[in-house]
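Crash report, auto-generated. Payload:
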Amino acid sequence: MQPASPYNGGVGSVRFEVVAQCPVTGARAGLLHTPHGVVETPVFMPVGTQATVKGLTPRELAEDLDAKILLANTYHLYLRPGHETIRRLGGLHGFMHWDRAILTDSGGFQVFSLSSLRKVTDDGVLFRSHLDGDEHLFTPASTVDVQLALGSDILMALDECLEYPVSHETARQSVRRTVSWARAAFEHFRRQGETASSLFPIVQGSMFTDLRRECAARLVELEADGHAIGGLSVGEPRALSLEMVEAAVPLLPRDRPRYVMGVGLPEELAEYVARGVDMMDCVMPSRNARNGCLFTSRGRVVIKQARYKEDAAPVDDHCGCYTCRHFSRAYLRHLFLAGEILFATLATLHNLRRYLDIMRELRQAIILGAFPESARRLCALPGEGK
Amino acid sequence: MQPASPYNGGVGSVRFEVVAQCPVTGARAGLLHTPHGVVETPVFMPVGTQATVKGLTPRELAEDLDAKILLANTYHLYLRPGHETIRRLGGLHGFMHWDRAILTDSGGFQVFSLSSLRKVTDDGVLFRSHLDGDEHLFTPASTVDVQLALGSDILMALDECLEYPVSHETARQSVRRTVSWARAAFEHFRRQGETASSLFPIVQGSMFTDLRRECAARLVELEADGHAIGGLSVGEPRALSLEMVEAAVPLLPRDRPRYVMGVGLPEELAEYVARGVDMMDCVMPSRNARNGCLFTSRGRVVIKQARYKEDAAPVDDHCGCYTCRHFSRAYLRHLFLAGEILFATLATLHNLRRYLDIMRELRQAIILGAFPESARRLCALPGEGK
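Recovered output after restart:
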């Protein structure tokens, strides 16, 4: 068993330590101790959906980006190659050759966004695979089992993800179900006597602050090692996403990490950090990279544009990534237009570096007591680079 | 000007040195001195068609594979992004961040295989781009100019590539034209006073030994720094390809490198080396990699096969590549079935390593006087691995 710690009274092995706090905003710098290393927070977690961050080797993730934690998708890995297969091959860490921390999501978001013919009951959710149409059942207990088979360091409890907008009544029913599923998940998780991982519940409640608060209050009773806020980035205005975070955060214990799922744009990261968020993930940097949209310290570069045809400058001359150290915008544009695989690699390396650099800058600013200035500068980034 | 050397009386800067010779076969080990480093021969050159070896960073090519020379395609780069663009961006070496040697082909093969509506005259070949249908003219002089703009270390003279089979008369006409184009190319090349690169002519002659011999004899008069044998791997039986090489090689000077274009399978490499060939290139290792066919020391592994689903072994337990050191067949199969970009990277890294390892093994065997045994073992590889 993990020895009792001053930071953490939960059952799992993830411990959180706040090392500095912004005196003006809710921003804090912390250390997240996991069985696979210490993660400095606030942290952005690159998304490795199918046991790979698209386009990058684990060596590039560790050595170029110094990423300390990745997110992988329970839904995808459950369907292919199957969690039992991954368990037999050493869990996700062994399977994908990643010896740092891994967080897995609950599967809920993908069930509700990718699968068809789903049927939600109090027991769980019945759905058809987007790959072959086969029917599967996810329950609070089964998704814990899947994530334990994957060997995840941080697991998520099954939640119901709603589209936007929905009625207050629909959202209320859904919060009731998410809370009941979370209780079932924790009961099952604790029965396993698992000490090498932690389970986080997910605050839902659509875009209703009262429901967000109620959901958070109920979930805190579970005494989890950390808490997630989900159901955002589903089409709502950005101001509303932030409002939902603002509603939930004050109810979540200060000594546990707070994780907002599926956000955000580079210029939004500081907004969440300012509200006391410690962890984030998003496909944005990697997906946009593959689509030719590069994030820089001066805004976006849409690499296919003709003005970059003979541009010998790097994507971002303030960036120290492998791509910016060695390749011109002109070369990247050529790779993009030629449909070359190397474009995905170089662009993803750069965009993820940009996200991680922003988070490192914010963390440093918190520690130095200069978070508001840093945040203001980062939030004011233009949409399109020179 | 390059100082006169005992190895090389040509005009260019590439010098060749034979360091060992097999007493039984025609195999020899050499050193190819280029303006961008020394290349140990026999050598296999990875193909970087559009200024990138598909799926690999130049760092992986240099640090993982220790490739000393790459091939790039004149036709592709001429059309996109354009040779003048590449010249302005530091030539191919600067553009793609590769400071080792680069060989460019003549453009002939792609004009004859990819473009449409071509018209061949004694002046050159008029063709339509496979990208946008625009009309372009390649002449012996213009393709030299394109390759000089690319900053290639080794250029190829424009040649006419025939389909297979053709009549003796057609092949005879084509040899006449290829020789006349080569003369024009050398005249133009020498007028430029270029000292940082060498131009190789290409022996053609379809599958007729008399024409191959005649073509080789005529081209040797140009006193080039090296010679290529082209027009193979166009659908002919493998025995015939080897016969054409056997016909041409004895006519090519022993103190200059011999390059057979577009070959071959792993088990064929030793066959060419045995016949006195020093340089080869082929898309096979990289293209097959992307299609899930992996070459190993025990034969082929077709990674999608169900038997690899939970196979924890590396692709080849005798291989020291990044892929084999860290990833299982099961993981590679998963990446392949999931259509992940990382598969292309890991598979290409492995297949190219296999080709380069074979060439290093053959070179070592030549130096140690054990080439025939090595060659016999490598030529007897089964088609399908365990």
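Post-recovery validation: The first helix of chain A runs from residue 58 to 64.
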